[in-house]
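task queued by scheduler; priority normal; single chain, no ligands, no partner chains; default sampling; output format set to structure tokens
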Amino acid sequence: MLKLTYTENGFQLERLAQFLEDWVTARVILSLRAGWHICVEPSTASFLLPADLPGVDRLEIEAQREDSEIISVCACDAEYVEIGLRGNWVSAGTEKDEGVFVVTLSDRTEFFLFKLWQESQIAASCVSE
């Protein structure tokens, strides 16, 4: 399962070895016990990866092997590709910009997408230094 945590400063991507249903159930139980509001709804999320990142072309092939309704890879411009995902949004309310997006893909695609995202973060931090 991939977990994208969206905050006001950006997002963080994690790969969890947990079933989506188990993770959502635990989150709902925690919210009920703590008295927090929680909203879980089907949604989409997207983020950009550099188009020249080694392996992006392979990700496009992996995405075609997946259910086309779960992941898409689209060229935005000469510099970036957009990764679109269909999963579930978990937040404190329906109008919240901060929250967690979770999606389940094949292990291979999840691992590969996570590695590409990590590499893009390393490349971005090297450029900013």
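post-processing summary
- The helical segments are 20-34, 56-65, 107-128.
- The chain has one domain: 2-128.
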